[in-house]
Design a protein that fits this description.
With 146 residues, the protein is an all-alpha fold. The protein contains 5 helices and no strands. It is globular and about 45 Å long.
């Protein structure tokens, strides 16, 4: 595995594990699905969005897992059990590790991303940044609600 592949794989695993920790820190499962003030998306829906995005953009697109994404549902579905969210997050780790072990980082990403042709390196870095953006939102919303 090339060095950048290994670094990214380690960061994805670290941050998905941190997200699992956040999900488990909610006092109640109901709080995962609550919002406050002008916040439109619950932490649970943001977790579903991360699961869907990574399964589609890494799993289906790079690893050919056959995953079919229903992006709109990521923001509509409610009250998925905490243990199910955690299980789906756990499943991302080996899929991402195996994919990053094989992907050529400077090769073109198979589909248009951010309105242009991009490299796998660009897309995988952007997805990690996006994961962290939502991880921060989830942490902040948990602390506001509880």
């Amino acid at each position: 595995m090339e060095m950048v592949n290994s670094i990214l794989a380690n960061f994805y695993e670290r941050d998905i594990r941190k997200l699992i920790e956040e999900v488990n820190l909610f006092n109640t499962e109901e709080d995962l699905w609550r919002t406050q003030g002008s916040v439109k998306n619950s932490s649970g829906n943001l977790v579903l969005h991360i699961i869907g995005g990574l399964n589609h953009l890494i799993g289906a697109t790079l690893a050919h897992t056959g995953y079919i994404r229903h992006r709109d549902q990521e923001f509509i579905i409610k009250n998925v059990a905490r243990k199910e969210l955690v299980a789906q997050l756990e499943e991302l780790i080996p899929m991402i590790n195996q994919t990053l072990a094989q992907v050529q980082m400077e090769a073109d990403y198979p589909i248009i991303f951010d309105d242009a042709k991009r490299t796998n390196n660009y897309v995988l870095t952007q997805l990690l940044l996006h994961l962290n953006y939502h991880l921060g939102q989830i942490n902040y919303l948990r602390r506001i609600l509880e």
